[in-house]
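In this section we walk through a basic example: taking a raw amino acid sequence and producing a predicted 3D structure, encoded as discrete structure tokens. The instruction is simple. Fold the sequence below.
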Amino acid sequence: MPQNVSRVVYKICPADLWAEAEAKGVFAGAQVDHQDGFIHFSTAAQAQETARRHFAGQAGLKLVAVEVAPLGAALKWEPSRGGDLFPHLYGPLPLSAVAWVKDLPLGADGAHAFPEME
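The resulting token sequence is shown next.
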């Protein structure tokens, strides 16, 4: 893991897809994750830009906070947007690694209103 990276990463996920994961006991990823071969995550510093680029105007989202340590070697930090390192999980997300799940509502300005993150 790169230095100065939080112990928590974040997944923005449609609420219905997250409900399916909770029912199954594991999150296998969204359609884009299946296409790319890994589950996309963001750090706290990257999450708002991820929401703006990939979920603009979309309601009914969840913000899922995931502990990095239990993911072990399946979590890789790889260059993406502007060379920034993004966390990618190669394999399913065990729900035991989830620290919390919160609604990610749209604010009056149309941008997502994020809760406090690490």
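Looking at the output, two observations stand out. The chain has three helices and eight strands. The domain at 8-103 is CATH 3.20.170.20 (ADP-ribosylation fold). In the next section we compare this with other chains.
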